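Troubleshooting: if your tokenizer reports a length mismatch, compare your output against this known-good record of 352 residues.
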Amino acid sequence: MLKTASTAYTKSMKIVFSGGGTAGHVTPNLALIDQLKNEQIYYIGTDGMEKTLTAPYLEQGKIEEYRVITADKLQRKLTLRNLALPFKLIKSVRQAKRHLLDIRPDVIFSKGGYVGLPVIIAGKKLGIPTIIHESDMTLGLSNKICAHFASDFLSAFPCDKRAKVVGLIVRDEILHGDKNNGLVTMGFDGSKPILLVTGGSLGAKALNEAIANCPKIADRFDIFVITGKNKRIDCDFVKQAEFVTNMNDILAATDVCVTRAGSNTLAELTLTEVPFVTVPLTKQSRGEQVKNAQWFTERGCGLTVSEENLSGLLNAINVAYDNRGAFQAKERAQRGLYGTGKTVSEILKYKN
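Known-good structure output:
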């Protein structure tokens, strides 16, 4: 069939995504990729978690190619390893430049994490528009550096005067879970309320141990623990898994949650109206989780228990569950947190 001059064509744009180290730096990218179905998507990351999490998207054809670079993380303590980082970063930037010269993208989007830094620097050197997004109340180290190189700096909260606040990037599917599928995944029949315990993609040993040391919780709740990679709870009154792929279904079946205070997790719980008790990470942290927890609890979405006072965890869980109607009403008032569409619009403005 001949193409006529009057036929309208829209050229797809090439977008490079980067970010990794934890699921919190990858799943927002996947949420955006789901919205950019008509564009050519590439991902630059390490051989780590981000490669594992993006693999299904590569198989489904949502990502054209996954390109690998090496990238090293800055240690938050005095160590000789940090002395070699500048030289390793130079190598990573060179690797990223080679991939970018081959792909020739219209724009680069980085969600953060140490793998995104060399990609953003390489993009700046090559004159390619670059966008970064910060989810937490304070800037991560990588994004703090990237902010000096990025064309656009987006954020979920007013964390920096240079940032344009667009909201949190959340997967649409998280709002459309199937309760029955969630119960099947967890191995419950729904006869008791469900308590979900999750420490994020890397797990939280302190939360796992706190639950294991409090069998009384099982008198009231069926308990499902997402333990994190290579972690396990040694007790017989919980069901557990290292990781789940259908978090939307799990949340649809959950009545109350115990969690760390990653902003993405707290946003997903809030948007799905699951009351929570958050135990923010304080050790080996820049303090972002404490601020995240404070923001959400001040708005009545859940409760906060400090890691130093886990003896009060059971009481907090019961309070959150007993007052779930009040917490859910406050969570419904936070619908403005959803910033996926706004972020997509920021990316598409570079479409020719």
